[in-house]
Design goal:
It is a single chain. Helices cover 61% and strands 0% of the residues. It is an all-alpha fold. Helix 4 packs antiparallel against helix 5, helix 4 runs parallel beside helix 11 and helix 13 crosses helix 16. The longest helix has 24 residues. It is flat.
Amino acid sequence: MTIRERIELQEKEYLSPYACLSMNSRGRDREEEQCDIRPVFQRDRDRILHSKSFRRLKDKTQVFLLPEGDHYRTRMTHTLEVSQNARTIAKALRLNEDLVEAISLGHDIGHTPFGHSGERILNEISPFGFKHNEQSVRTVELLEKEGQGLNLTYEVRDGILNHQTSDMPCTLEGKIVRLSDKIAYFHHDMDDAIRGGILTEDNVPDSISSVLGRTTGERLDTFIHDIVINSLGKDDIIMSEPVAQAMKELRMFMYDAVYKNPIAKREEERAKLLISNLYDYYLVHVERLPQEFINLIENGEPEEKVVCDHIAAMTDRYAVNKFEEIYIPKVWNG
């Protein structure tokens, strides 16, 4: 018996009857030999962690575009906070931590530079539209490893796709990530907004604070405990009605106070101009795309979609540098 098989048996003996066991995975699109040490979801997590797309998350914006402070969140730190929240909940409910972590680490892997403003402009200008959850799946299925993809299991791809859609993930582990994503960005966006001087704790309505707590730490603790207590022993991941309602109110408050705040979004129009110009440029000059993207076009992928692939893969600073390289005149040293 291999180490992997022993781990799979331990999962079967210990995990909740509602957990998604590694041995019961629906498998991969391309069959491959099993690892003798790692179950399939652990292997998926490792593939995502070692991917180029994952490494680029460290230089992609979360909310504040190109922040100068050292402690503002990036797409990478957001991803790690989602993973930690999700693993805490999964462990308490005896669900599959490897699956939760793989989905968490991959859920934003296809996100654009400049946060959701980058996503919005690509969605507006591309005839195919653009959604970062779909792009994350496209990244792991096609774009990584120069067109080979990571060949992840069905359950991980399903969790990535459905972390922000009207459809629900097919596993409880995916549902945990879906909620953990919301909890993470409410938690850290509030923390960053307070650090940035956009709001204070006193600005949070009492109808929210009285239920969730009066600090970022208290709110995070309330969310996680509420999910665990209300989901324990059930074939679902749920919150109590008071906490769920307070989360909805918190979301509306954050949109008005932070996400639409002119201080936080003062660079957004410039980011939109930059991305739309890069899109127009590469659509006319597809031959100047990196070779891996040219190969996709030669294999039948639409040019508009591949240009979006290239732009979505950029970090904030790489996009700025490319824009300057293409559009800003250089000093002539002749």
